[in-house]
Amino acid sequence: MALILTDPVAWGSILGIGIIVALCCYYAYLFVHNTIENR
Fold first, then answer.
1. Do the Cβ atoms of 31 and 24 come closer than 8 Å?
2. What is the pLDDT of residues 14-27, one digit of tens each?
3. Distance between CA atoms of residues 34 and 14, nearest Å
4. Rounded CA Rg of the chain
């Protein structure tokens, strides 16, 4: 675990995955919000 915390490459991939997940959640929220409003 300490190796992951000190490795910048691991941090980069964790950050990248985090951004992708955040974008997916954001777009899913927008999609649901718009479909509810349009009814």
1. no
2. 899 999 999 999 99
3. 30
4. 16
